[in-house]
Every structure is written in C-alpha cells, then in structure tokens.
Amino acid sequence: MENAFFRQDCFINGAWIGASGGDTIAVNNPATGEIIGAVPRFGRLETAQAVDAASTAFPLWRAKTADERSEYCGKVYQALMDHQAKLGELLTMEMGKPLAEARGEVAYAAQFFKWFGEEARRIYGDVIPSPWADKRIIVTKEPVGVVASITPWNFPTAMIARKTAAALAAGCPIICKPASQTPFSALAFGVIAEMVGLPKGVLNVVTGSAQEFADEVCKNPAVRKITFTGSTPVGKMLAANAAKYMKRVSMELGGNAPFIVFDDADLDRAVDGAIICKYRNSGQTCVCANRILVQSGIYDEFAERFAAKVAALKVGNGLEGGVEQGPLIDEAGVAKVEEHIGDATAKGAQIITGGKRHEKGGSFFEPTVLRDVTAAMKISSDETFGPVAPLFKFDTEEEAIRMANDTEYGLASYFYTKDLARAWRVMEALEYGMVALNEGIISTPVAPFGGVKESGLGREGSKYGLDDYINIKYGLFGGLE
Ligand code: SIN
C-alpha cells in the first residue's frame, strides 16, 4: 500500500519488530473484503519485552520537565494534523468508516495531544495547612508508572490518542494493544513517535493475542495501570484480574444511550441530532443513541421526518466521495443487527425504512428505523452497535426518565426540550456519566468522557482524565522548631 504510515511490524523499544516467520493476523478492508496486510500475532513474550522497554524508559520520561513533555505532545498533535489525509485513508481502509469521518477522527485524536500537552504544565501539587506548628504538609503528583492500553476497532486512532496523550503528559510510558481488526492506525503512532523523536520505549505498539497481552500486563509488576475501551463483559474480566495485583484501571465500557425527544422540542434540530447521534460510524459507537424515546404528541411526525432522512443516507465504500454510511466491521456485527431486527419485528415492531442487508453485499446494511418498539424487545436492553434506530413512545416526563434509566448501563444520554425547568430536572434525573441537551454529539477532549453503573470506571479527556494517570504523594516535613 502506498502510504508512509502503513507498517506491518510492531513498534517495541523504538524498533520495528516483525513476526520473523511466526504467526500473523491478516487484516481486511470491510468494504471490499480484500486483505490489506498482516501483523504479528505476538503474545506474552513480546508483551513482556514491551513492558521492559517501557520500564526502562520510565525514569527518563518522568524526569523530563512538564515543558518538554508538553512539547512532545504538541509535536504529535502537529504530525497528526499534517498527515490527516493519509492517516484518514488508512483508517477508512481498515475500519470502513467514511473518509470525512476518518479525517474527523484523526483531528479529534490530535486534539487530545494538544489538550493534554497543555495540561502537562498544570499538574499542580498542594500545601495543606498543618495541624502542627513544627511540621508542614505538602502534596505532590507523580506519574503512576507504565501504562498498558487495550483499544477497540471502532475509533482506532482516537481511542489510542485519548489514552496515550494523557499518559505521556503525566509522565507515563505506554504499551498499546490495538484491536486485531484495525492495527494499522495504531502502528502509525510508531511512525509518528519516530517522526517527533519520542525517546525509545515511551510508546510501544504490540499486536496479537488480546488474552495473552492482558495476562501479561495484569501479572507483570512493572505495569501500574491498565486502561481499556470495549465491552462490559471483557472490562469486568480485566478489572477482576487487575484487582488481584491491585492495579489502577480505567474502563470505558458499553452503553445503551437513550435519546429523548419531548413534545416541546425543536423538531428539526431533534431529527438532525438523532441522525448524527445514531448513524455516526454506522451506529458502531458506545455513545450513539441505542433507544430513541419520543413523546406521544410528536411521535408520528418525528418518525416520518426521521425515516425520510435516514432513507436518504448514502451507503458505500468510505473511500468514495459523498458516502455517509460505510460497511459494518464484520459478519458478526451484521448478525447482531439482524438478530435485533428479527426479535423486534416478531414482537410487533414495524420497519419503516431499511431492515435488511444492503444490495452492495458483504457487511453493508441498510440504515434502518423501527417504530412501535417496546421494552420487551432485545434491542431495548442490548447495545446494537449498528445502523438501527428503534423508536419507543412515552407519555410523561416521569415515564421517559424511568424508561431511560431502566438499564444496567450509564454512559451517554441525550434529550431535546425547550423548557428550561424540564432541562434541569431531566439532566439531574438521568443516571448517566454524560448528558447532552439539544445536541446529538457529546464527545470532546476537554470534557470528562466516562460512565456510571456498568459502563465503567474513571474518566478520559479533560483535567479529570489526567488524574487517572497520577498518584498523589503526601509529604510531611517535620522538625521545623
Ligand atoms: C466510543 O464509541 O468508544 C467513543 C466515541 C467517542 O469518543 O465519541
């Protein structure tokens, strides 16, 4: 492939390490089914090598001044922006999302380095008024140490950036394990690390067995923190393993986002918000609307307008101009979408647009809207992770809140109203880590991203996101009499 960022070897201790005849993982383009390359199927041994490299780099990296770390992050930001087009192309080829979204993701990723690079200069300590006349109390902040990250295929550049930028800013080296469907966007960070002259061992990328990687980083005493974005069941297993060794964890897990439209909402705005919220990345997003709850007075009108816009979405290979919906990542993704639609229609839901595999074949699926959906259907409790919008009906505000909170998840939520008092009430009543009023996109590097309940632990982005990579040290200075 003609792309300077395309590498098929792993990046460990500042060097490119190939499979050397060992096992590899083939990576395909979900839009065409073509194999675009292969990466090493590394396991515990190579993960341990990366941990050793990161451990060796740790004292040197943490000793850099805040200014120096900030400048490195700034250079990574610039490199991502300078090469946004090439990186976007690589991302679309391995993941399938439309090029405009892929370029947007690269810019989003870059912003994490800009934001955390600036924050590196503001990791302040504290002086606590002492209860003793002859003693003083200070609080200092220190990097937690070597970080291991495990990231998903749906945002292969931004999820690594979100973790890596915070780690580097705080003074922590990192080992990244990308999803096997999308390793190339991760390996591109190795190219960028070389480009900006990041000291060796500070950023490492290991591809291969997630199980072996997780086993090694949980057990290896040099790793002090594990950060994961992915499903709740895997997050629970990782957190349980990490707990055996008392390691810090950040877990960004599954969601079941409600998108509530009240009778008094600006309907045009709500329809547009629902489109972007549901169909960004073809619905393969933890924060995308999984349930659209519409008040009875506007239900029919909303359904009609929304379905008309959904039907007009252009489906195709993300590399082609004007495409708004790419393929799903794989056949398993399509099977889940079909299962949810089948279950819902068997229990009385109606398909008002879409509903089946797209004529383009492969893992393309028609953007779909279902109406008359109820809580008895699988789609109401299970994250679809695909381009299906189920429309639920409610009568009162209390009912909407009860329906919205009726899930073990608590990541993102959205609602549309023009009533200020209702806005406050609903914002407070929603049991979610993130709530957006009259907006369908909530993510930004400057705000704390994260969930409550079974959607995870910790926050990413914002000043709160940096705390997850920092240990607090209490220093007592005595004998001052
Ligand atoms: C995700 O789906 O995991 C993250 C999406 C985002 O950052 O907006």
Topology:
Layout: E1 10-12, E2 15-17, E3 24-28, E4 35-40, H1 44-63, H2 66-82, H3 84-95, H4 99-119, E5 126-128, E6 136-143, E7 146-150, H5 158-170, E8 174-177, H6 183-196, E9 203-205, H7 210-219, E10 223-229, H8 232-244, E11 248-252, E12 257-261, H9 267-279, E13 289-295, H10 299-311, H11 331-346, E14 350-353, E15 368-371, E16 388-394, H12 397-405, E17 412-416, H13 420-429, E18 434-437, E19 456-457, H14 462-467, E20 470-477
Parallel strand pairs: 7-8, 7-10, 8-9, 10-11, 12-13, 12-17, 13-16, 15-16, 17-18
Antiparallel strand pairs: 1-2, 3-4, 5-6, 6-20, 11-19, 14-15
Helix pairs in contact: 1-7, 2-4, 2-5, 2-6, 3-4, 3-6, 4-5, 7-8, 9-10
Bound molecules: succinic acid.
Written account of the structure:
The structure is a single chain. With 481 residues, the protein is an alpha/beta fold. The chain contains 14 helices and 20 strands. The protein has a seven-stranded mixed β-sheet, sandwiched between helices. Strand 17 (412-416), helix 13 and strand 18 (434-437) form a beta-alpha-beta unit. Helix 2 (66-82) crosses helix 6 (183-196). It starts with 9 loop residues before the first strand and ends with a strand. The structure holds succinic acid. Succinic acid binds at residues 154-155, 158, 229, 285-287, 443.
